[in-house]
Write a structure and sequence with these properties.
The protein is of the alpha+beta class and about 575 residues long. The chain has 14 helices and 17 strands. The protein has helices at about 1-5, 10-35, 45-75, 80-90, 100-105, 140-150, 260-310, 325-385, 390-405, 420-435, 460-470, 505-515, 520-535, 540-545; strands at about 115-120, 130, 155-160, 165-175, 180-190, 205-210, 215-220, 230-235, 240-245, 255-260, 415, 440-445, 455, 480-490, 490-500, 545-550, 555-565. The strands form four sheets. A five-stranded antiparallel sheet has the order 2-1-5-4-3, with helices on both faces. A five-stranded antiparallel sheet has the order 7-6-10-9-8. Strands 12-14-15-17-16 form a five-stranded mixed sheet. α2 runs antiparallel to α7 (about 260-310). It is flat and about 110 Å long. The chain starts with a helix and ends in a 6-residue tail after the last strand.
Length: about 575
Amino acid sequence: MRAFIKKNNTLHNQIFLLFSVLAVINISAVTIIGYNKFSSVYDEIVQEQLEQTSIELNSSIEAKYSQISMIASQVSTDEDIQNLMYQLLSQPDLASLQAQTFKRTLNRYYPYIDSILDYRFYKLDGAGLFPASQELNLIIDDQSIQRALDAEGQLIWVGQDTKSHRYSYAIKVIKLMNHSYKKSGFLVLKLANEYFDTQFGDSDNFIQIFDDSEQFLTGQNSSKLLLSDEGEISIDDEPFYVVKSVSPRTEWTIYVAQSMANYNQKTQKIQLFLVGIALIGVVLGFLLSWIIASYITSPLKQLIEAMRKGPKRQLLHIEETNSYLEMHTLHHTYNQFITDIERLIEEVYEKQLLQQQAELKALQSQINPHFLYNTLNTFYWKLIDEGKDELADYVLSMSALFKYSVSATTTDTDVVTLQQELEQVEHYLNLMKMRLDDRLTWQIQCESELKTVQIPKLLLQPFIENAIIHGIEPQRTKGMIDIIIRSKGRDLLSIIIQDNGKGMPATTLDNLNKMTDIPTGMNHIGVHNIRLRLAIHYSENVADSLHFKSDENQGTKVSLILPKEEKHS
């Protein structure tokens, strides 16, 4: 018996025993005081509460519907959406090019209401604009479409999705505000029905909502559809009181069902035990808190005193006590903690030494580029003094290109203007001309207003380098590189780099365009890295716009479409 007590003499068991005794005393006292003291339930109270609940729920649902209608109005009157719909009226062929603009504009509205799962845009004839792959009559019936046309811009509730009862649709006509409110298309919202879901009271109570066509929208206990009059009903032999309410705005019907048995159990206890439980709870609460605090803190205070005995508040190993299992475990864990701290101090000291060595090497690596810049500049002025201007220009191009390539970026995104990038391309071509002489010529055409557009750093040079090394240099004929940069529409620019070099085989060209298999050649790895940089900086769609066209012995053409990102001063 003594061994059993020693084994189970834990803090958890002692507290559990204490709470068990107090619980028995408390329940016994409450049972004696409250025995045979019950009161009757008033049906008028139930009815008033349910009617008030029904009114509040009706207001809540109308507010949610109004919020959806407001979001739909904001989307349809958004300046970008209005401009897009007007452009698509006059130029319908641009629909496929405006998907990114639709997506970017709608991203501002998705966070407002999570239950609006999708915003869709259609032409007046039902053709899909965004997404373009789906027709309007596949999800919205003709009667609802006509109601939307007659509603003159009001949001029309369509009802449940034919494929899933969890979702519903709403539709409205988009009018062009700056063009005589001309109808330009439709906005369709896909919503999760659970957005209108709500509940009250205990789990036995439930609410059911039906739309204006008496289709079940959302609610609890959907296997027992109400669709009945108000008053007392029986569901699975359990009595319920039901109140029905119809929203004047949405014409939806809300049924609120209150379990009578559950309500009776609650009301019978409230009056009789409120005062008694409050007094007993306060007294027992103070007593229990004092006992628990004293019982827990007493051994902890002993541990704190033992820790303070160390000289100059140093953490020292302490003797492990056996008063009960938890405290023994605490002392053992504390001693293990001190051992771990001592080990960590040694590791931190070693890491600090390694860090100091790394900082010294980093400082040396910063000094080396500056030394090289200064040396190249010395070569430049020396050659100028000796009258070797052409060779001096090559040294100057080398210095500028090296500094541009290895210098640390000044922005988090590592971007430069087109003008800066083209200047470095010129430096690189000058250096290549020193090796190829008259075999290399080039021409750069860039619209002046595009020179402030920002692009990722060192985006063009890999293509120029591939054109020279793999296209022009293997041949003995004169090589020509054309770089053409032009605007493509309002928000895009086109970059074309073409040469008259060797070209490439069809299999290599197919691999470069599809990027399904990356060979080990450095030029192909460079193209793969450029695609990754484009996908990170812009998006996957921009990376997919990189395209190669080549014929053997006739040259290669690289084309790329980028968004315009103007540099702001």
